[in-house]
Write a structure and sequence with these properties.
Elements (H helix, E strand, L loop, with lengths): L2 E4 L3 H12 L8 E4 L3 H10 L4 E2 L3 H7 L2 E4 L3 H11 L8 E4 L6 H7 L3 E6 L10 E6 L5 H14 L1 E4 L5 H29 L4 H20 L5 H8 L5 H13 L2 H24 L4
Parallel strand pairs: 1-2, 1-4, 2-3, 4-5, 5-6, 7-8
Antiparallel strand pairs: 6-7
Length: about 280
């Protein structure tokens, strides 16, 4: 099976590098292109067996599964470009949340899916979110799910929770990285600890926290209970968090959903179909 990647930006590169590291595919399985061809050639320089072609149409001619890894408003032009080379045996997969599988199916006569990755997949960890079109063949559902599971935990979601799920899985690493950086800044600005030491301690604390959860030793609630001794120092810190975070995360999800709605409206104008 030949896998095509149209768009080798951050997430397109995460996908192919993760699959290669997980040995889910070989370099010879990959056909890639990018609007700025230099980026695709840089990947080929690292992975000699990867085939670089000039256009999305060239990818469509030779690939069985096509991953469209471009910005939301660039998806439709790509679909129109590849459409003459698509048949019912192929599968087209978008990785962008504002494009629904129904919209993909409105343009293409083939199996369609959505595959929303996370930067955590690059460590063969985290979650990737899957949605399948009504006409998607079972063999493609199994194949796409296997690719997702090779680098993450595949979770199939309904369209209605796409934004919230994507916020947690895909945007979440950026949000929590920001909080970790503010945590470090607070320590440096109010104590004698230096930034490098605070960074090392914080990064390893986060890694250890992840290991505890991954191994099922504790859940999030039980972790908090184990660390927060009644009347202790952790409890005093928790009082500050409870008082000052307030409705911060509620506001975060409202803001991301508002931007998502704007993106959907722009995409619907392009596709002339509802999300």
């Amino acid at each position: 099976m030949k896998i095509g990647v149209i768009g080798t930006g951050n997430m397109g590169t995460v996908l192919l590098e993760s699959w290669l590291e997980a040995k889910a595919i070989t370099e010879e399985d990959l056909i890639i292109t990018n609007r700025t061809l230099k980026k695709a050639l840089a990947i080929q320089y690292q992975y000699k067996g990867v085939t670089v072609v000039n256009t999305a149409a060239d990818v469509a001619k030779h690939a069985d599964a096509l991953f469209v890894c471009v910005k939301p408003l660039e998806v439709l032009p790509v679909l129109q470009t590849i459409k003459p080379y698509i048949n019912q045996d192929k599968c087209v997969i978008s990785i962008t949340s504002p494009i629904s599988v129904d919209q993909l199916e409105s343009q293409l006569d083939c199996s369609c899916a959505r595959f929303i990755p996370s930067i955590t997949n690059r460590a063969l960890s985290g979650v990737s979110l899957l949605s399948f079109g009504s006409q998607c063949q079972s063999v493609w559902k199994e194949t796409i799910t296997a690719l997702a599971n090779s680098m993450s935990e595949a979770v199939i979601i309904e369209n209605e929770i796409t934004r919230a799920a994507s916020d947690i899985v895909s945007c979440g690493p950026a949000f929590f990285t920001y909080l970790a950086r503010k945590f470090i800044d607070g320590a440096v600005q109010t104590t004698k600890i230096d930034e490098e030491t605070a960074r090392i301690l914080t990064e390893n604390m986060v890694i250890g926290l992840g290991d505890l959860l991954k191994k099922g030793i504790y859940t999030l609630p039980t972790l908090q209970e184990k660390v927060m001794v009644k009347g202790g120092i952790t409890g005093e810190g928790m009082k500050i968090l409870e008082a000052e975070t307030g409705e911060m995360f509620e506001h975060l999800f409202i803001a991301t959903n508002e931007k998502f709605t704007e993106d959907i409206e722009d995409v619907e104008k392009q596709f002339r179909t509802r999300y």
